[in-house]
């Protein structure tokens, strides 16, 4: 059974935002104000809830609850979207008996359409009532949209100095997302909870570092949602305190949880059948390594080749060639599944493609590129590109 | 019937590079050395024929012939590829009775596989023999790969100062390509011919300017081939001379021909059903306008929405939001088919989507974005993204 960090409770109801009988409104509530940190989309058109949550966190660095609705994104809704978002949090604050500013909102769903405030008004008290009687899985289902499966991951931390009952510390992460896809209903949202005691500033560092090596390292279609949000909440209920000196112990657990969730999102990329692990080494610097890794990860030709189980290293070479990174073509090498295909600017003779056949049938396909230009390294996870992606995104009607 | 610029003759044969009975080797031959200019791929891994042609043009600025094979790209073939390319031109030079350095080579086809020199040896004399007895259409077919239709365009120029029989000047362009797709067999190649008399330096200017507003303005999947090449040859046989003063007259005709060919390539984009015309205005500068236009043109979400006939302006807004251009979100406006959907940061109320239904059924779909940040403008043509693209590129085996 899923270990729940102390101090947190879940609620979930069907508010009707999805026009179905499915759960589409969920809340994580903390018994007292939790330290809270957030990382948000860099899209120039952030959705209303993103702006509201950012403002709330800047003010206090703490939160009592996270409230997420699926079905309506409240993005590109102009001034009205801001008013609606604040009103919905006012309703939730009243129902939960907490200040509206202590609730962090997220929305995911159809863009450019105002939220149905009548449904909010009806659902708010029901959601408050459900808190405590729902499981983490109920909450996870309430925030799912095009997700094919619920995404949860957890870790356990021991050896932190206890200042209370000194029990073990838990980290639980819940995410939804099937691609950095907007405004289709596949925004990436995640709430990570821990019962360790952590100061907001330290919590922000831990979250930022974890997101940089997890959620920021996956590429489904390269589109960046207007609603992407990741929260980290620390209740302190485990009676174990994290200071700068022992930060690493918790940071590792949070990063591990975020990486597990990020892998699940790539795995669940719309229409994806495989996860492509792209490792670039020997770049001039990290920026160049990232450039090459992301160019390969976004190349429709590489993604369709992997979908077709074809070890088409020529397409990888080509993407490296237009990535804009600095290197000497004669020093570039490419491997798939660690089998050399192109070495120092020359194709490798032999039966590499036959050897690769079994690797190409796996769910995880590995691409390695060495630029022979320095010590820069970078790794990303990418989804392949198949018929299902087209079906989902061409047939989806806004 | 297609007007052929004076001084040019065509040849085409089946050499067997395509492993079929189809034409796969063609030549354009000029009665004497023609002024010649070329524009080549910026990919860091240019194919052997690209390097050989660049070298030849730098030396002389003239050419007697262009020789193109389809079926084998001679790309990513290392040193051996250079040797093979020069050897094949030696064979052609011998067969045509011209110096090998006066022939400009192009190859398109499978990457990473050495060319079959035996087939070259057999085909060279047959190709030379066919010159004069073949039509421009035969040559066009010989360089086609995944193209769904042959691509030719022409223009007529009058009013140039004659220094001979003073007849009208002709411009004929031939292209192949179904996407900036590599290493699949869809490299973009084009040969543009004119019978005007033009100095090489002036010819280079005219070609560069024309390519910048035509072939460089189309986006199918954003991948850039290792073999992309455009040549412009001027025979001077019409007896009309182009000087810097009257350069514009010919430049307009060449640009017109290149734009017509570029449209056909976008129209024929692998699996494409529509051509998306993306116009960005009001950008801080041209670079920003280009950034936004290309981000929209490459967005799989925008491309699949257009394929699905869905006027999903939210996906356009989202792409603008992560394009990296500088603007104030409250000043951004979006139109489709000139119908306002989003104005000054606010969605436009009303029945825009109903009004747009007929527009979305057209072959040409128009997207307009105004950033309200300056005078920068840019326009690109893009293909939509459909099931056929996945089929072609997933089922193609290297």
Task: Report what the structure shows.
Chains A, B: Heterotetramer of two alpha and two beta chains. Chains A, B: Its EC number is 2.3.1.35, 2.3.1.1. Chains A, B: Substrate binds at residues 145, 176, 187, 270, 393, 398. Chains A, B: Belongs to the ArgJ family. Chains A, B: The record marks 108-109 as: Involved in the stabilization of negative charge on the oxyanion by the formation of the oxyanion hole. The structure is a homodimer of 398-residue chains. Chain A is of the alpha/beta class and 398 residues long. Chain A has 2 domains: 8-267, 4-Layer Sandwich (L-amino peptidase D-ALA esterase/amidase), CATH 3.60.70; 275-394, Ubiquitin-like (UB roll) (Roll). In chain A, 34% of the residues lie in helices and 27% in strands. Chain A contains 11 helices and 17 strands. Chain A has helices at residues 48-60, 78-96, 117-130, 136-142, 200-212, 247-267, 286-298, 300-307, 313-321, 352-361, 387-395; strands at residues 8-13, 25-40, 62-72, 103-110, 151-157, 169-176, 189-194, 197-198, 218-219, 229-234, 241-242, 275-283, 333-336, 339-343, 346-347, 364-370, 376-383. In chain A, the strands form 3 sheets. In chain A, strands 1, 2, 3, 4, 5, 6, 7 and 10 form an 8-stranded mixed sheet that branches. Chain A has a 7-stranded mixed sheet with strand order 9-17-12-16-13-14-15, sandwiched between helices. In chain A, strands 8-11 form a two-stranded parallel ribbon. In chain A, α1 (48-60) crosses α2 (78-96), α2 (78-96) runs parallel beside α3 and α5 packs across α6. The longest helix of chain A is centred in the middle third of the chain and has 21 residues, at 247-267. The first copy, chain A, is globular, with a radius of gyration of 22 Å. Chains A and B meet through α8, α9, β15 and α11 of A and α8, α9, β15 and α11 of B.
